[in-house]
Amino acid sequence: MYIVMIASECAPVAKVGGLGDVVYGLSKELEIRGNAVEIILPKYDCMRHDQVYGLHITYPDLWVPWYGGAIRCHIWFGFVQGRKCFFIEPQSNDNFFNRGAFYGFPDEAMRFAFFSKAALEFLLKSNKRPDILHCHDWQAGLVPVLLFEMYHKLGMDRQRVCYTIHNFRHQGITGDNVLWATGLQRPEYFKQPERLKDDFNHTALNFMKGGIVYSNFVTTVSPQHAWEVRFTDQGYGLGHTLYTHRTKFGGVLNGLDYEVWNPEIDPLIPHHYSAHSLDPKYGNKEILRERFLLRKDYKPVIAYVGRLDSQKGVHLIRHGIFHAIQNGAQFILLGAGSEKGINDHFWQIKHQLNDNPDCHLEISYNEELAHLIYAGADLIIVPSVYEPCGLTQVIALRYGTVPIVRAVGGLVNTVFDRDHDSKPLQERNGYVFHEDSHSAFESALQRAIGLWYSDPKAFRELVINGMQYDFSWNYPGQDYLNIYEFICCK
Predict the structure, then answer these.
(1) For the segment 437-469, what is each residue's pLDDT rounded down to a tens digit?
(2) pLDDT value at 338 more than 90
(3) All residues at 6 or more sequence positions from 351 whose CB lies less than 8 Å from its CB, including other chains
């Protein structure tokens, strides 16, 4: 099968969050299974050029129709850790992708409308006819709209679209201009409620809604989140659209690249270990303590690794820091926030606890350091307000670091409470709390810390339980192939 991924990110060349990891990891798995996979990305000026091998212009004169005229593009090609990637570089005063950052600009909708149009124009002009276009998040939500309203008539009538939504919070809300720019025109047609009309701002268009309406199949990144976005406010207004298109919607749990995240071979940790040889893990714990000048004492190390923003439950993260060090544990945090207020708040906590030998806050993000923390910590917290899938807890399980999570999204599908889950004891792998409250979080923390102290043998068994789970791309890769085959047969 010939598959083209269209996305705004792909790790490690252009990565802001989990979207980049998924595009790379799923593409790799599909290739391993014998499929031909290509990835189309914007050519950002800030992308990691050092992560692209053999980058060169492969299609120098792609003229993309835009506002009644056309914008010339260079199409570059290169390998990103073995994946075949095409990069779209418009030669325009708009400088759509020469901004020094991936996101965060007032013309965001127009930037990615152009990217979507250019991606399809490239496939059309280069005579590429994939079986599947797999589009990701709102940035590629206009691709199925353009495909079925315009490019079907131009010779791309056999392509089928799978559309994956990673985060419902950002939907691409915009005005009519995008219709005139892309050549779709007919605002009275597209602003019908069954097409792109936003359900709350009736004068606006919604890219994500368009992706849902026009795609052949829609997924989100865990089965639990697929339920949440339909029946709770986590759909951010798209619940009715998802209900209308419920027969083509489902959840597929994200996978993890076990070649990158594997304590048996990880080049970024000093001591390698496995579920069958666990003791070297504790050498990593000692090195982690030395790195952050924590005292060497008989205490569990609890960690947080990830973004600091409202989605991640920053109020509970803050509470967890103080509760842990007041209840016989040490705490390490690695993360930074996009909101200045949140960042400033955690800098204040860092200064407050600067001399505490049981705590270190690293207000930044460093992928290499993250590997050491996963390998050296005993427990990790993921107290998210919402979490479509989450990779933190899956990485932690792989590294024998017991997760303490809130029962939302993909956390529900991957972490099973040691004390209360219905699974057999040998299949339970962490601690889960339900309410978004200090008391619920404290209860889970206390149960985890209590087991670490009172029954080291049982805690070790819990660690090994988690390490034996397979959350690689093996199962979701097959799930996506099943979806592709299903929509190709329709």
Answers:
(1) 999 999 999 999 999 999 999 999 999 999 999
(2) no
(3) none
Strand 69-80, strand 53-66: pairing: antiparallel
pTM: 0.94
Sign of CA dihedral 104, 110, 111, 117: positive
Please name the residue that has the structure tokens 């709102």. Answer: 138
Q: From start to end of 363-407, where are the E strands?
A: 379-382, 402-406
Secondary element (H or E) of residue 63? strand 53-66
**3-state SS class at 101:** coil
Torsion sign, CA atoms 261, 467, 167, 438? negative
What pLDDT sits at residue 489? 84
Q: Count CA atoms within 13 Å of residue 179 on its CB side.
A: 20
Of 80, 82, 405, 23, which Cα lies nearest the Cα of 221? 23
**How many Å apart are CA 402 and CA 385, to the nearest integer?**
20
H or E stretch at 80: strand 69-80
pLDDT in tens, 203-220: 999 999 999 999 999 999
Question: With contact defined as beta carbons under 8 Å apart, do 184 and 149 qualify?
Answer: yes
**Cα–Cα distance, 96 to 110 (Å, whole number):** 8
Angle between helices 474-488 and 18-32 in degrees, nearest 10 = 80
φ, ψ of residue 192 in degrees (nearest 5): -80, 145
Please state, in angstroms and rounded to a whole number, the distance separating the CA atoms of residues 201 and 211. Answer: 18
What is the chain's mean pLDDT, rounded? 96
Q: How far apart are CA 262 and CA 40, in angstroms?
A: 28
- State the Rg of the chain over Cα: 23
154-157 long-range contacts, CB within 8 A, separation 24+ = 154/124, 155/124, 156/120, 156/123, 156/124, 156/129
Domains and CATH numbers, the chain: 2-255+474-488 (3.40.50.2000), 281-467 (3.40.50.2000)
| Cα dihedral 324/330/334/337 (nearest 10) | 30
pLDDT reading at 490 higher than 80 = no
